[in-house]
Amino acid sequence: MIEGPALVDYQPPLQRPPDRFEYFRPFEPFEYPGSMEMQEELAVPSSPNSVQSDSDTSISSVEVPSQTIRYPKTSSEVEVQCRWRSCGLRFPSLDQLANHVAKVHSASGRGGLFYCGWEGCTRNDKGFNARYKMLVHVRTHTNEKPHKCFQCEKSFSRAENLKIHSRSHSGEKPYICPVPGCNKAYSNSSDRFKHTRTHQVEKPYQCKVPGCPKR
């Protein structure tokens, strides 16, 4: 039997936890600049149908292609030029041109109004009372149509025009003829206005065929 000093229970020193964790950072919310009214008109609608399915000509995450795949350019990816006065910058896509105009050329001018500075614009001296209205007007020069119908291939520059067009798919006709007894309804107010003129006694449009009395 080996004799020696009595064994003492070993107790490791206590370790204090770190004062703070460096692994996590507080989340900073993102705020979209601009007024709510402008966001509603300039917002581009999104749809699950606009995202390509994984089964449609997609590349598996396991298989790595041997060479880069080049997809054909869409209309929004064709190089375009900003024709704002004293600008002339070029951009690889229509979307980038629109962002450039919104950030650089959309400041208010005299009288607090917003003026279009596009070359050849017939209303350069007529300002808009809202920034988003001027940006929507610029689309008449750039031919930008960001509001796309999810049921067909048509696209529009204004959200309101897309809303009216979508009724051709849904069959919605909220504009009803106000004449008593006439229950005809239309998808937009313009068509209803044209219809209500058929109830009027006055018919200003006469047939141009010689001898035809119809109006």
TrEMBL record:
Highest taxon of the lineage: Eukaryota
Disordered: annotated span: 38-70
GO MF annotations in UniProt: DNA-binding transcription factor activity, RNA polymerase II-specific; RNA polymerase II cis-regulatory region sequence-specific DNA binding; zinc ion binding
Protein name: C2H2-type domain-containing protein
SUPFAM superfamilies on file: beta-beta-alpha zinc fingers (SSF57667)
Coiled-coil positions: none
Transmembrane segments: none
Pfam family, one: zf-C2H2
Major localization class: nucleus
UniProt KW rRNA-binding keyword: no
UniProt keywords, alphabetically: Developmental protein, DNA-binding, Metal-binding, Nucleus, Repeat, Repressor, Transcription, Transcription regulation, Zinc, Zinc-finger
Location(s) in or outside the cell: Nucleus
Domain C2H2-type, first and last residues per copy: 119-146, 147-174, 175-204
GO cellular component: nucleus
Record's keyword annotation contains Zinc-finger: yes
Biased composition (Low complexity): 50-62
InterPro entries in the record: GLI-like, Znf-C2H2_ZIC1-5/GLI1-3-like, Znf_C2H2_sf, Znf_C2H2_type
Family under the similarity heading: Belongs to the GLI C2H2-type zinc-finger protein family.
